[in-house]
Amino acid sequence: MRRHERSIERYTGQLFIWRSIADGLVYAYISTFNAKHAFFDTTSPAPKREAGFIGGKAGLAKELGMLFSAIEHRVPAVLSDITNIIRYGDVCLLGGDDPCPIEVKSGPVLNQRGHRQAAKLAQLEDFLKNDRAVGFRGMPEMQRVEFGVPHHDCIADLNACIQSARYDGWNFFCPERGLVYAAIFEDAPIDTLFKNLGMKRPVIFMPNAEKMDRSWAPYLPFTISIRAPLDLYDFVVGKLSLVVVVDAAVICDRLATPGWKISLVEDRNHSILLEHGSTAAKITISTQFFGRLGLEFISLDWFVEHHKKLVASMWTDMMAGKGPMIDPAEFEDWDKAIAALPRAYEASGD
Q1: Residue 226 placed within a domain
Q2: From the CB of residue 266, how many other CB atoms can be counted at a distance below 10 Å?
Q3: What is the C-alpha separation between 187 and 159, in angstroms, rounded?
Q4: What is the pTM of this model?
Q5: Domains in the chain: how many in total?
């Protein structure tokens, strides 16, 4: 039994790697911030259940027929079930700004499960079309807004770090203040590195662990980030280890503006809390978004500037009486829960 369990685990791990390659196809056409919506459920903040095996499905021939038809009409497309990120529909069209999942049914009549799938897909389509939805992912109202700052990452710096490590055995690189990449092929003085970083509140990301746990999605897949084929292969088989260290204190200090207190909080859903002094208004930055620093290798400078501009825009809307609907009772419970979170670091703009 143990031997079969290990065999199943290895096979499951291989399926994750193959699906990560298919994820690379999705992200080659669709922005990481748009593709992620096809990963989460429409009724809760949790990920939608992942696909099973594609073999033995009665409708696979029709799915392939639609896939090939799309490609023949010069519309990029992928089978949803061979990806980690697309968890809706059978075939996903990739010709627009947003993913476009399509259900392909082998029969004219939908069963109960088919009706549920169709309802969830309709909710997703409505949100992607209107950029706003009521009762979406368990929220009274959800709205998505355009970035105010052009997106920027440090993927080129990461790959340069890996290339240097290939010759020297290991390498550390600091592309921006408060952000460090480590690439390791051989034993490296990790303990010494952490002691000499001079960071007040280091947050450590271990991409290899996320790969082993198969918990990488919905982030930009490593098949896109790691550019050289040999480097990618070495990362997949474990010869290359990556470490990302972020100084959360630097982020909090730079986010601090007059009237606002910024805190690093210890919670599975929220990483940074912004509190307005005179009104007690609260805005949080999610742990999922914070994780982009460690797994998508985004720029720390961009992270800060994006959220400063976003908060300023949200504050303007709040003062003008705009913004999403809020249930007073739910808000009071949320406010109390947020206020009770332990603070690991605080910065004030006063």
Answers
A1: yes
A2: 11
A3: 19
A4: 0.91
A5: 3
